Prior knowledge:
heterodimer; A: mainly alpha; 0% strand; disordered N terminus; B: mainly alpha; two-stranded antiparallel ribbon; 7 helices; 2 strands; 6% strand
Amino acid sequence: MATKRDLPADIEDRDIAEGTRGFALGSGETAEQFLAVREDMLRSAGIEPRWPGAAEIRRKIEAGELGT
Amino acid sequence: MSAGHTPPSKARTAADNEALGMWVPGLRLVLINEVHPALLSADLATREALLTWVAWHEWGHALSVTSPSPHDPSEGVRLLALAPDGIRERIRRGSYRRREYIHELIAETYALLMRERIEGRPGQPPWLPNEIYQLISRIGI
């Protein structure tokens, strides 16, 4: 495994440029449709999909339940 | 646009305007457009879920690009073929260049793994191939 120092500078710069495209839904795709694709994937893996709300995430962070 | 910087292309500006969120390396910040029409038109639960997803996805990009253990972009095509359907098909439909596949794969997988951690299931999930899990592990989840 190469380290970052081993890579030519131009590769790092190019990767940074390519890795920073904004996140967008597909053309005509709704938020519900986007999440449904992930729910289908989780169900196919035997996991019942559930999306944690902001309050739940905040509570778990503040309780230290998510580790570091 | 900032002094001393080349202005973005019209296509890049248009794409940025459509984005719900993005990581800005120069600022080391994730920006999220909370008034994006896709968020405003969604119900509260969907909005929270999507906002969470965007934040994790973009943070995955930040970790990916700044990782001290960088990954070979040319591996993206091969690794994407191993990915779960829901991740693979979205990236393939997204008009990304092949060199961008690995960044999107990391960002999407990172978001899913963060969701699993919130659900109390840290570690490698059964739906994720070991090679992709190891890739994500090296960047810091």
